Protein 1
Amino acid sequence: MIHDFHYLKPGTLKEALAMYAEHEDCKVICGGQSLLIVMRQGMIAPENLLDIKHLNELNYIKFDEKDGLRLGATTTHRAIEKSEVIKKYYPALVAMENKLASIQVRNWGTIGGNLAHADPAGDPAPLLIALKANIKVGSAKGERVMPLDEFFVDYFEIAMEKGELVLEVHVPVTQPKTGIAYQKFNYLTNDMGIVGVAASVTLNGGNTCKDARVVLGNAGPTPRRSKKAEEFLIGKALNDDVFAEAGKIASEDCEPVADIHASEDFRRHVIGVLTKRMLKKAFEEAQGK
Amino acid sequence: MSTEIKELKFTTFKTNIKYSVINKRVHNIDGLAKVTGRATYTFDVKLPNMLYGKILRSPHPHARIVNIDASKALAMPGVIAVATGKDTPGVKQGIWRRYPELCDEQILPLEKVRYIGEPVAAVAAVTEEIAEKALELIDVEYEVLPPVFQPLDAIRKDAPIIHEGVERNINVTRHIEWGDVDDAFAEAEKDGYIREDWFRTSSQHHMCMETRAAVSSFTPDGKLTVYCSTQSPYYMQALLAGVLDMREGDIRVIAHYVGGGFGGKFELDAAIFCSAVLSKKTFRPVKIVFTREEDFIASKRRTPMHYYIRTAMKKDGTFLAREVRVFTNGGAYTGMGATALYLTGFFCSFPYKWRGYRYDGYRVYTNTLPSTAMRGFGAPQAMFCSEQQIEWMCADLGLDPYEVRRKNAHTECYEVPGQAYIQSCGMTQCIDKIEAWAKSKGNLGPNRAIGVSAAGFMSGGIFNWFDTPYSFSSAVVVINYDGKVDLYVGCQEIGQGSNTTMAIICAETLGVKIEDINVYSGDTAHSPADLGAWGSRQTLMAGNAVKMAAEDAKRQLLEFAYAEMGLNIVYDLDIKDRWVHVIARPERGMKYEDLVKRAIRGKDGQRIIGRGYYTPHRKGMISPAYSYMMQAVDAEIDPETGKITLHEVMTAHDCGQPINPLGLIGQLEGAASMALGFGYLEDQPMDEGKILNPNLVDYKVIRATEMPKTDMIEIDTYEAEGPYGAKEAGEGLTNPTAAALGNAIFHALGLQMKELPITSEKIVNALKEKKEKQGK
């Protein structure tokens, strides 16, 4: 049973930041698709809930060919999934959203809420890190921006100070000759991933890797890059053997934990397979550009 | 015994009978109430002055209860009563009432708890929140005892004893045997083929949309009314009378709408019992609704089994004999698990003819959540093992598995020696159809294959271990002055469409429209006794009772029509589509409504009342009739990740005469989703007896995105024992699926998967093992 709490509903972002600074033991709710589950299971019982879901100031999708994509924190998954401009410039994001939980959840859950919840099995984070996204957070005192891969600290822990809210996700313009791919492994298509892998590959003319990112979901306390796999790839002429080797490196460069759904060994095995496949998929997409 | 049947050389393939109501696609008659939210489930029941109950559960798998101190809880404002075993007559109950030693479960036990989640005390308070908080204030002193969790550990000599006096924790044993098994094996040893395998099947949760729920209201006149979510109001009435030391007739059980049962809701559960005890204590209505977690940890589950099968066949694929040994994880109490033990042993012979067959089953107590009936009732476990082994033996010998199945399949008018009479049987036709379908698919490409499994199932049980003195099914038909019909049945609607089925049978028999029938069920105050919705019994048994009741009423109507029309005695009358007519001259007749009015007048104003009942007689040991089917699962497996993609499930199905094709499709789809889940998703892993996934995030059930296309080829048979030739059509469809999936994996990747569920991880490990073996 969910314990009683005080419900705070600010009218503006400014008011939200002021309220957040004011209240102790306060959780932000921005859709509640993750939060309410942990509250219902009794894992947390905050005294106050600050609802920012309705703040339209943070509900936007902006795109500029020079600046890239900006997603306000209260933008829903469904809005991202249905956005024409995202479909055109970041199709991998649409594909990812397509398999994020159910339509009902996507209609109500938000990108800011998802990232702030910091479940290592979350879908958007690995892909956004592969896209080199930054995240803007702010409090009553001011705003700051950090790369998304520095945002996650531990299981359900993020690099935010007291009183800070997630404000925006910024995805820079993708470099030319770049391919992006994400896939999770699970039993039910729209379930959380048992593991997930996002890859980006940028080619330096020909088949040589200029830049690469390999980001692993649910392979440790946070979404994490396999920098060893990335270093291995950069400068290499890419082919199936290289992808397989990168997969092997990634499968060793992570800390997955066994649970009832899969053992540690199996998770490492699937990370290896998915890394190989996502790199190949990203490579083929980059070649086509 | 056998001569009687063998002389019956009638054909069970029906001639073209034209029905007016039967075999039309009909929506469930209660659909409108459900989709508009007007159906009153137990959860919706709210009575004046009602209290809310919550149950305190054992954190230990095995412990002696030393003391329960509820004084602090009782002191809490808003708490009205706390009940423990001491507030009950202390009766051990069970559903096998003919066998007192199997009535072993005392809900709210006095002495011991035997599984994590077992009810220890119950609180009634003015709100649910207060009741829940009060649970924390009850001090229970336990003396923790050593537990045992696995049946093969529990049968050891030095294992902890779970029930006093039950040696080696063996709860029930079952032996089934016919023919000369040893002789047949000896023959195979000389010039045949013998194969033996061990299998393990997993647990499965019933996963009803509606969790266990009850509202009990005990009134000062000594009468008890219980609204509850049950598959059998009559069973609940009888069982409650036993545990509360009351007269059956003073207990009224109401269950108008039930959100699913699947075999999990025909035993007395803690929601029903504890609410009744608390209501008796407080003289106020008490409502208890299980949370989803409580349903997972404390409502019984599908029986996990260890299976050993040794099968002998001739080199040409003729089956000789089979020997089967099964150990089931019974959990803490018997429940319906004893029946599952029996049925798994019988259905492991299905649907084939064996010269010799021997089964020994052992149900073993463990300190885990008790196991019980669940859709298929032991048969899905049997088919998973049997049908895979047959497939592998065919591969071992280079035989065509369709041909081998056909060669050994049951046929109509066959006697399973000493066990069962098979009248109608479309097994061979099912095999033919699926073979043609599978072959029409052509080459499916790498890592993808069609796996098949045959199966059959019963149409209700013949056994009466419940020891009811009443007919298994009864019905009353009342025809009113305006021609509308009230149909009173004890069979239970649990979402499967039983009320619709009964309305169809009643309308067809009387010759009226389905909308002329009002079905009254789910209330022991006006429904005649009926064993309820389990074992696939209602269409055949309650259907026969309804048909008989409707015929009785119709005969009374036609008596007046004969008199009125003054026909030559050689002519017959009938009613169809509300038209009473001479069969030979259909244009000659009168309106049904007019006949009813005259008939009622002729009966001095009495409404026309027809009565019907059914109890099976002289049909063997198991069931009056059997459904047959062959199912194909088209699956693709990613050999690197082990991920299974389901493309299609096709079933050739002999259920006799389908009553409602729309209902049948619903059963097919529901069964496929449940049985595929059993095949590769669902399990209840435990740590020291504690279920680790008691929620819908971690317990995986198939969702719409995973659901493959399913379709059915209906095999046309007529079952003489069933109403209008109908027999079982729903539960049995759960039986073949896991085996067919296993066989698809066998043909796609060459793996023999012997453990359920077949997870991706198990597939990857098996492939790795296979590669290592080939490397050597």
Protein 2
Amino acid sequence: MSTPLSRRTLLRGAGAALALPWLEAMAPRRAHAEAVAPPLRFAAFYVPNGVRADTWRPDGVGRRFTLSRTLAPLEPWRARVVIPTNLWNARANVGDGHYVKLGGFLTSTQIHQTTGRDLNAGNTSIDQLMAKAVGARTALPSMELSMESVSTGVDVNVSYTRLYGSYLSWRSPTQPAPRETDPRAAFQRLFDRGSADAAARARRKSVLDVVAEDASRLRSRLGAGDRARLDEFQEAVHSIETRLAFEDEHAARAQSAPADLLARQSELGSTLAAHAADPHRAGDHAERTRLMLDVMALAFATDTTRVASLMFGNEVSGRNFAFLDGVTTTHHDASHHDNDASKLEQYERITRWHVEQLAYFLDRLKSFREGECDVLDHSMVLFGGGIRDGNGHDPHDLPLVLAGGGGGSIEGGQHLVSPPDTPLANLHLALLRRMGVELDRFADSTGALPIG
Amino acid sequence: MPATRAFLAASFLALAPCARATDDARSLLSSSCLPCHGATKSKAGLNLDALDDAALRSAPDLVASILERLRDGSMPPSDASPLALEDRDVLIAHFASIAAARAASATPSAGRTLPRRMTRSEFRYALRDLLGVDVAVDAIPRDPSGGAGFENDADTLFTTPLLLETWIDTAATAIERADLATLLPPGREAESLLAIARRAFRRPLAPDEAAELVLRLNDGAPTALLSILASPRFLMRIERDAPLATPAPDTQSSVHSAPVDFAISDFELAERLSFFLWSSVPDDALFELAARGALREPATLRAQVRRMLDDPRSRALADEFAAQWLDLRRLETTCEPDPGRFPAYTRELRGAMVREVTDVFDAIVREDRSLLELLDADWTIVSAPLAEHYGLPAPVGADTHRVQLDSRERGGILGMAAILTLTSHPLRTSPVLRGKWILETILGTPPPPPPANAGVLPAEEVQKDGLSLRERLEQHRARADCRSCHERIDPLGFALEGFDPIGRTRTKLAEDKPVDARGTLPDGTTVDGIAGLKDALLARRDAFATQVASKVLAYALNRGLTRADDDVVRDLASGAAWTDYSSRALIEAVATSVPFRHRSPPDVARTQSTLEANR
């Protein structure tokens, strides 16, 4: 084979673009090193409101450990998970109970206290740094998802804008990444892009040319302080242009997709359509979450994106979890348990439900074969939250799970206990480096966490 | 005049009436403040002994920070002897009157907003007005909202690839659906295209700009239109620092006109007006007045406001301003009554609930009714599902209809199911949330934050220990650090206990306990049920007017308000009282206010925001 195959192809008959899974032969020859290994993916999952702390920590240290009650759903995945213990973000040990904790989860910094003006997370989040490094190789550089809409207004209790409670991913220190909250819309964004015919695509490209020119002309007439907003606009134009160019380049070398992936994609498309059409099911949190996880897994398997983040809820989420057996309350309420036995029990059930979602996602990734391995082998999945025990908003010893093989760079099956108050940034640094973001340090890191 | 101001400020700042004289404040000052901030001990470098009222008047930042610490309860600190709630209010009123009196020496600034993109709603309305098609904008991500709680706040309107992409797709869809033969009639394509571009860009076109657009017709009308609707000239709202017209001396208000601020151009004024009142682009009438430089004439400006309010497009004030001010968006997002417990709460009912609030607000503006009818009215507007929910006769034929009410249960937003639902938990009502919502949204006096170990109330109405919510809250109030706030919050919320979590009237709580809707406000007024609550709020109409004025102003200016806006808000609120709270008079006053017609140059604005940051 003299010409490398495309990873992505257009199925004009079906009227939809399908991203192909990684195949060795598709890797461009110039990227020789990459051609040897399938791509690495990163997913971050955020659980708001902390976890029931006394039933989280595994028994035993290192490779000899027993999973706790809360982590029990991970038993089948024992060999593929690392449970990091004793990490924290020192800079989140101030401010308020929730917003500072979430704001620093992927940035290891401290958000600036504001009611709306001067929004600042202090850093770009690690997923976005990764997207900048590897995003150009996929149709979408990254994908940001959440199961809850943006919370608005100001939390006057603590003088923070509620926006901070809604964003895990930061494109830049001052710009949160907007999230998609509807599984079907996420699916369409990933997989329905190529449906436009050639003429429509050409039209969009020519429009972008005009728009880019307009933006730079407008920008040149503005004062320095006002230019940032036009910079943002130009960056958006540029990023869409890059993506269209990517699609063109790969569409030109169209190949047919493996039938099984195509079948799974169209099956998920129909499930989502049916779900959206049924008003009784549309509000079902458990089902919506599963569908979102399905979409994420398919996005990784098809190499449509390699970086994704999902928030199970906004911080301070008052979601009603009465759909779980034995739970009659809301998430935030259960988290302030005051050591009441019944509340603790409910808190644990809610926490465990989130762990079950992680297990489900791992199962989805594993179901996609990739050469001799599966997609989970080539993924890094970070799961957890910025609060340990929600009752006192404790930021020490964060509840964390790291899953996936990291392309052979992560050694699963261990309870990795660090010295107390080891920077969370050490884990960030370890993940960033694996994704090709070469940094000596990240935020307050003191070294890369030994996860491999 | 200063006396009126001080009185207004006092009633705005404190729930309890503050009739006590300055002497009281002086003696409280020496007993509660001077031990730490006096001549002997001057913690944080503050010696109040050395500062008389005149000295304080010339230190507005200091007064503001004292007020802030008093209001949020952080002064006196917890290790000092506590200050009774009434005494705290006396001190707050004292410092507030000093703050109010400094107005004459202060230099108000018109303020400044960053260039900002349109909101999702504005984009939809603008496409409707330019192309005559109303397209769904669901694909575009929802807008967050800024400090004042409005989506149009320039500070939080970021532009991202996802947004731009969905804008372009949505505009392309709108163009596909538009009737191009009418929009661009054969033989007059160029001329019609330029007219659309002028409206979309809200200004006249430069000759080369126009020539370029006409050339683009060679690629087909859809492409030419899309190049207008995807352009930042349409999507971004940018105001220029160099005013197109010379800064005119302000004839309206000699007190507030600041020499550093300049009047915005007539086209920018037309744009601010149309985005304020219609959430959309200006129409031809506004454009022509702006082109003649006539819009800035006060009489013309007022006449235009009246014309625009009569126009159906002013419905956006209800669907955008009122919906966001009153938090209605939360009904579509995070607020979820338990579906098992409340099967009656369907999407249809939720829509009908929202519709009642926006319909009533729209009627109040359209018919120039009193803003106080938001607090209490003997009428409301319901659709069939809501009439059934309320147990009112179902409307015949019409989509919605106005009903005359016999009792005071409904009528006014506090008796509206939308408000009662969004201030409840999934499984029970929340007197705390309801009370806090009233303090924050209606009176503009949010309670300070709870202490870290405040605890959380149970999710259900009755817990295993058999305590009712009221009993549990009473326990909570026994704690000194909780009492001062819950004394303000709880009675307001308990007055609404006659309504269940989805706003139905009830006489029994869970486990057949009877509803108890009684409470005593901090000033001693006793309230029993919604009628008493309405009376109590009507008695605080000044605070309410101040709150509405500041919300309308923030919405109109697309920014959060700062202390530099305090005087304008105060004038708007007292103006509202003089016009019997006429809704239209308030909107006109905002549209003709100094900050609405002016803009601060960059350096002044920077100084202002630095001041804010240092507060």
